[in-house]
Each structure stands twice: as C-alpha cells, then as structure tokens.
Amino acid sequence: MTIDEVKAHGADLTERLSKLSSYLHVDETLAQIAEIEKTMAQNDFWDDKEKAQATVQKLSSCKNIVEPFNKLKREADDFLAIAELAEEDPSFLEESDDAWAKLEAALSKLEIVSFLSGKFDRCNSFVYIHAGAGGTESCDWASILLRMYRRWFERRGFQDEIIDMQPGDEAGIKSAVLKVTGEFVYGYMRAERGVHRLVRISPFDANARRHTSFASVDAFPEIEDEIDIEIDEKDLRVDTYRASGAGGQYVNRTDSAVRITHLPTGVVVSCQVERSQHKNRAMAMQMLKARLYELEEEKRRQQAAQISGEKTDNSWGNQIRSYVLQPYQMVKDLRTGVETGNTAAVLDGDLDQFVEAWLRSGTK
Questions:
Q1: What is residue 214's predicted lDDT score, i.e. its pLDDT?
Q2: Does residue 336 surpass a pLDDT of 80?
Q3: Bridging pattern class, strands 319-324 and 194-201
Q4: Per the count of CB atoms within 10 A, which of 27, 100, 133, 261 is most buried?
Q5: 3-state secondary structure (DSSP) of residue 193
C-alpha cells in the first residue's frame, strides 16, 4: 500500500463512518440507552418482570448497535493515526495495510446493519415454506430448504421453533411454519421471500431423469402488541384437531392443535407446537396478526406501484434464486446476479453472500 492509497482509505473511512453514524442514529440511541438505564435504576423496576425483561431486551438491542460502532470508531482512529505516521516513516505502511484489511471487513459488516432500517426489520419473524406443484419432488425440495434455513439460523445465532408442519405423502414436507427469534431476523429474512427453483437428477425417478422443482418462502414480522390491528372474533373460524407430523421431535400428538381462518381475507394460520390449546391459539393469533398487517402493507405497495406505473407480478414462475445441481453445480440469485459453484455450502446454510447482496442492492 502506498502513501496515496493510505490517504484515500482514510478519506473513505471518514466518510463511511459519518454515514453510518447517521444511518444507525447513534446519538439518538445513546440518549435512549441513558434513559433506559435511568429507568432500570429505579427501585420498583423488577416489580413487573415481563415489562422489565422487555426493557432489558431493548437496552441490549440498543447496545448491539452502539458498541460495535464505537469499537469500529476506535479502530478507525488508530488507522488514521498510523496513516499520519506512515507519511513520515514508510515503515508504517505495512502496518497500515494489515489494519485496513481488518477495518474494512468490520466496516462492511456493520454497514449491512445500516440497511436494516425498515419499521419491523429488528423484529422476530414467522417463516413459511411451501412445496410447489410437483408432488414428491417439490415436497422433498421444501424439506431441503427447511434444513438449509435452520442451518443458516444456527450460524447467525438465531433461535428457531417449528410452529406447524404438514408432511408430504411420500417424502419431505408440504409446508412448514417456523418462529425465528433474534436481532434483525425479519430484516434478513425479507431477502429470502419468493420462489426457489431446484434442478437435479431426481432420487425418486427410476430412470434418473432431470427434474425441476419449486418451493416458496415467505416471512412475516412478529408484530408487537402496540401495533393496532383490529380482528373481529365474528370474522374468525377456529378449528381444533389432533397434531400430526413427521415425529415427536417436531410436534406433539395431542388434540390441542389450532387452525384459524380469517373469513374476510381467506388467510389461514395454524399452530400445533404447544400441548396447550390456549397457547396454540395465542400463537396462531400472533401469526394471523402478522399476516393481516403484511397484507395491508402489500395493498399499499401495489396501489403505489399502480400510481407510478410500475408492474408487479408475483406469479409462481418468477423465482428469485435457482439451485442447479445437474448438469452443472451453480446457485444463482436472479435479482442480484450473485452466484457460486459451491452448492453444498449453500444448502448447508451459507446464505450470507446472497442476503447481503440483496440488502446492498436496494431492491427491497
């Protein structure tokens, strides 16, 4: 690295940090932290444990933004100091080279968070996976996607729980619903919403022919109670049934499963993970609330698109990503152009390159 390159990196660093501070609302978050800590210092803070835990979680969420930024800023100050020394003593150039490589990686990672600025991006998420037309092939593909996402959640430190699952007739799953908890889960999962296409030699075809399968992935934020969504009990049909699934590791088999149909919209949600019918109903209502909110948001987006002349097509054939295992190995995101030949790693949960590229692309 030359002196001119060090100077250019220093200028770039200063500009990117300034933008990050603005995007992440660092000053406002610091003020929020001070206010929360003041509240936590009160003697009666733990009298309402549920409220106190929510406050502690909010403090942790704020610190998860500010502390990495402050750490990055300290490292940036060190780099700028090294850059100044390098102008007088070229022996510092090698040190600045190493420092920039680490700093640039940390900066890029934090910049991803700055793209997660949507209203519900910080929220937990309900994730839906549905097999497409194609019978056993698509059901098997849906189960592969389920495993892929659960591995990805594990890599990112998210916690997931299967809320509902319908097994395929011969193999795989017809559908699955998961509740995923963690920082910015919904913000990240928005990148995965759409149709996923698989091309491979079918393990279910005796003639070893190549098959194309489809499965859809959707995500809805876990809506907090303060979001006002009116649901009239008269508009609901509630059915209870015996939980079923691929085995005890997924769901229980009591008569506690709940399915709720919202009659005006036709939205159906179900939950069978809890042994208590009351708890399953509460979870299903949470899911319904999320679906109805997203439905209203989608109507607004479509109206805006019509006004601006944009065309929206959510047909089944418009896949967002292709996973080709035969006749060659390639996973390609059709929205961003990001591709890799390491299909095994992707199907094992290595999705960050696709998610981050989508976030950076601004195609949300």
A1: 94
A2: yes
A3: parallel
A4: 100
A5: coil
Q: Which residue ranges make up each domain of the chain?
A: 3-114, 119-222+322-364, 223-310
Calculate the alpha carbon distances from 47 to 8, 39, 44, 58, 326 in Å: 54, 13, 5, 18, 61
Distances (CA, A) of 149 to 78, 143, 195: 38, 10, 14
Is the separation of the CB atoms in 128 and 218 below 8 Å?
yes
Cα(195)–Cα(215) distance, integer angstroms = 6
For the domain made up of 3-114, give the CATH fold. Methane Monooxygenase Hydroxylase; Chain G, domain 1 (1.20.58)
| pTM of this structure | 0.75
pLDDT tens-digit series, residues 248-271: 444 445 567 899 999 999 999 988
The answer to whether 316 and 196 are in contact (CB under 8 A) is no
CATH number for the region 223-310 comes to 3.30.160.20
Residue pair 136/198 in contact (Cβ under 8 Å)? The answer is: no
- Dump pLDDT digits (tens) for 70-82: 999 998 888 888 8
* CATH class for the domain made up of 119-222+322-364: alpha beta
Question: Is pLDDT above 90 for 140?
Answer: yes
Rounded CA-CA distance 153/346 in Å is: 13
- Cβ-contact 322, 336 below 8 angstroms: no
102 closest CA partner among 191, 13, 25: 13
C-alpha–C-alpha distance, residues 99 and 347, integer Å:
34
Domains 3-114 and 223-310 share a fold: no
- Cα(188)–Cα(115) distance, rounded to whole angstroms? 10
pLDDT tens, residue by residue, 26-62: 899 999 999 999 999 999 999 988 889 889 988 988 8
Q: What pLDDT score was predicted for residue 169?
A: 87
What string of H, E and C letters represents the secondary structure of 121-147?
Answer: CCCCEEEEEEECCCCHHHHHHHHHHHH
